[in-house]
Amino acid sequence: MQTRKLGYSDLNITNIGLGTWAIGGGGWKFAWGPQDDKESIAAIREAVDIGINWIDTAALYGLGHSEIVVGKAIKGMKEKPIIATKCCRCWDEKRRIFNSLKKDSIRSEVEASLRRLRVDVIDLYQIHHPSPDEDIEEGWEAIAKLIKEGKIRYAGVSNFSVEQLKRIQPIHPVASLQPPYSMLERGIEDELLDYCEKNNIGVIVYSPMQRGLLTGKFSKERVQNLPNDDHRRKNIQFQEPQLSVNLELVESLRPVAKKNNITLAQLALAWVLRRKEVTAAIVGARNQSQIQETAAAGDVKLTEDDIETIERLLNR
Length: 316
Ligand SMILES: NC(=O)c1ccc[n+]([C@@H]2O[C@H](COP(=O)([O-])OP(=O)(O)OC[C@H]3O[C@@H](n4cnc5c(N)ncnc54)[C@H](OP(=O)(O)O)[C@@H]3O)[C@@H](O)[C@H]2O)c1
Prior knowledge:
Blueprint: E1 3-5, E2 12-14, E3 16-19, H1 37-49, E4 54-56, H2 65-74, E5 82-87, E6 89-91, E7 97-99, H3 103-117, E8 122-127, H4 136-148, E9 152-158, H5 162-168, E10 176-178, H6 192-198, E11 202-205, H7 220-224, H8 242-259, H9 264-273, E12 280-284, H10 288-295, H11 304-315
Parallel strand pairs: 3-4, 3-12, 4-5, 5-8, 8-9, 9-10, 10-11, 11-12
Antiparallel strand pairs: 1-2, 6-7
Helix pairs in contact: 1-2, 1-10, 3-4, 8-11
The chain binds NADP nicotinamide-adenine-dinucleotide phosphate.
NADP nicotinamide-adenine-dinucleotide phosphate (NAP) binds at residues 19-22, 32, 56, 128, 158-159, 178, 206-212, 215, 217, 265, 282-286, 290, 293-294.
């Protein structure tokens, strides 16, 4: 698989990374319905076997469960994949989620992540959300100290604006930004991509298939029948009137995928990777066959004609 250098770091990551949010399992506020750990572990090992060299997780996903599953899956691997995880989104004993960027909180979060992942060092540690906004400098300083102590190799952020990046850059250089990016969510094209390129910040985009919606495997019926604890039921892109617009767009993309002899999921990924500022796409998968299909998108190159056709369809 193709690799790209992540910002100023010496991490050479494959242009497709495995996302493990859904692998956190069911029964919490932002779950994706029930998930079998055995399938998750098989998906993670399959990803590594086919050449994906990094995994994105977060303490938040399944309130620690995703990190535990990742830790189990990579245990004993001769060459471990690069592990990226996140802090800031915490939970209390009643499993209520809150944000903290206080230095003591970050310090205990990193220790807990190291334990759950069963590793000595975290390759990429990211602030999950710039919140509370007034504490981003304190959180970033704490992370810079943890790098000096050898618990973290590189640090990045997620969901930050250009203004917030500018505030923390003088404290310690940002290795990567993790923003949302898909055909349905293009906000980063305005200024973030340009800022990251000019400042040597890697860009690893999340939800590139809009949480499964762009794979062509969704219908109104499937949305209606999603499990009660699948957070997508409450997501605006999966609700009317937007849902019908989105499903119509997906249908209109089918001929472009067919012409290239690729699937809709691969088209959605090749489309985000068309931008030179994007280092890699983080691709969620819940089983082996999903990641087998999507990993192949890393080698797909769309023509200018295809990109223009897609642009016309999106504008419509
Ligand atoms: N930093 C942040 O705030 C943030 C936010 C969101 C995500 N992320 C990260 O980015 C990763 C990727 O984003 P995402 O998981 O939200 O969305 P995504 O990658 O756009 O979609 C993943 C979902 O699509 C479905 N899918 C995957 N492969 C498929 C295939 N071949 N055919 C049909 N359906 C397929 C699966 O769900 P079903 O099978 O259930 O449909 C899967 O969970 C996350 O796992 C997480 O690591 C970070």
